[in-house]
């Protein structure tokens, strides 16, 4: 495919009428979540201009409590983007995780088994760092935009229209990056006869609580119990994040703090339950669990990234990390194109991103299947889970496989 680079280095504002404004940039990024911001910052460092369109406010995006675990590849990408100073100072390095079943527990030494580790650094902090650096560089970030539409993505002259404060604007660009999450518009812009979607909905959710209490354990505890799954995680030495598997019909208001702590204690090993320090929740929310992936991740000059293209259940801590993998491939493809005119990187974007994303989907599905109770689970299914956990406990090979996936597959 032949491309003509757009020479515009800064968005040019042209007032066409009283109502319609036309702008020009190189890459329009739809969605100001971690995927969109990271891409925009990496492009900026290469001298490639972008405009980020975000439906919500900055405070809303930063306030969402989501990911906690970052792979080394994600951390390195943040370093490459020049925004790792606070993360390097404040993150907690984790060399292992604990798996428990009923009252038995064992550790998986990620570092010894894979040579790598993960870090705890909340998505809230990472997103705040990204906004700070984009704003310091006078990045074009537009909030509260509505009715975003991608036009002519299958031509050499894509455009994006949107409304803000009652005014309709168009941006002419070279490329569109659809970083607008699962409920965004970008994926829908790919015609149905081109798009193929794969989905699995799990029959449960995760009820999450954030509390200003010290974490119950140095390492994360992934607990399988007869009452369902539980996870003990953290953000820092005085901020803990806990989850319990819950029914899809539950709402956060159904769970008092006392009921949550009581249920958590019943699902984690006794020594952890006895040492757990509880306190008032400062956030409580329920996330349904789903695996989803759409193919292809590129249509003409539109590229899907992150949750816009794939969703994984949080059990493997892979959502944001897989999004970061997409951004790595797309950023390198665009940088190659703008510096040399070579389209190889962008032409292979979908193939490379999908190959890595499918492996994250597989890993998250397998860990979810291993550790949760399913409503229709037979006695046989239960025995299979127990045998698989016992095998994981006793087999270094099985632990290596888990560790290799958990710390993140190479790009
Ligand atoms: P996001 O974060 O959903 O951001 C998309 C942005 O696009 C905006 N938007 C639009 N803007 C303009 N026009 C439109 N029409 C728009 N539609 C939407 C939205 O307002 C939003 O700001 O997607 P992104 O950037 O791809 O980032 C993905 C991550 O947020 C997600 O994968 C992770 O949070 C998943 N996740 C985890 N990932 C990890 O790698 N490690 C973890 O430990 C981890 N833990 C988790 C998680 C997700 C969880 N939940 C709540 C599902 C734990 C939980 C509980
Ligand atoms: C979190 O801390 O929010 C977290 C950690 C590990 C996971 C999922 C979520 O697998």
Name a few traits of the molecule.
411 residues, alpha/beta, FAD/NAD(P)-binding domain, D-Amino Acid Oxidase, Chain A, domain 2, 8-stranded mixed β-sheet, 6-stranded mixed β-sheet, 22 strands, globular, disordered N terminus, binds 8-demethyl-8-dimethylamino-flavin-adenine-dinucleotide, binds P-hydroxybenzoic acid
What would you note in describing this structure?
The protein is of the alpha/beta class. It folds into 2 domains: about 5-85 and about 125-200 and about 290-365, FAD/NAD(P)-binding domain (3-Layer(bba) Sandwich); about 95-115 and about 200-290 and about 375-405, D-Amino Acid Oxidase, Chain A, domain 2, CATH 3.30.9.10. The protein is built from 13 helices and 22 strands. The protein has helices spanning about 35-45, 60-65, 70-80, 85-90, 110-115, 125-135, 255-265, 270-275, 320-340, 345, 350-370, 380-395, 395-405; strands spanning about 15, 20-25, 25-30, 50-55, 70, 90-95, 95-100, 105-110, 120, 140, 145-150, 160-165, 165-170, 175-180, 195-210, 220-225, 230-235, 240-245, 280-295, 300, 300-305, 310. 8-demethyl-8-dimethylamino-flavin-adenine-dinucleotide binds near residues 69 and 318. P-hydroxybenzoic acid (PHB) binds next to strand 17.
